[in-house]
Amino acid sequence: MNIDKFKHQHVDILRRIAALRELTHAGVARNAEAIAQGLVAMSAVIKLHLSVEDQALYPALQRGDDAALARLGQRFQVEMGPIAAAFDQFARRWNTAQRLREDEAGFRAAANDVLRRVHERMRHEDRDFYPRVEAQHAAAAAC
Known about the structure:
The protein is an all-alpha fold. It is about 90% helix and about 0% strand.
């Protein structure tokens, strides 16, 4: 399975996290509109990414010949559940400029926690999961 699209989405999401971080450092109240818009846009990308993983990537691994990779995929999918739920709750809570202005400290604390978890998870996938998927794809193509 070609996972280039997944990898490009990771780059996009990481870029969006960095942009939110910059806006937050420059001032939550001053940048509340842009932060809220960025969060809504990033949420759409993350939801699409997770949906395609759940509907295409993980099932393909389960149907494949590499049982160890299938188990690894299943573990990654299960582990993503709480991270995705936390991000969804975060995105729903902080999706308006008014809420951001009303509780800057709460937003900063939540963003530091949730966005760090999303960032770390994507790095983990990029380092430990996607290379295995690519190697399996390359091996299957060579046959």
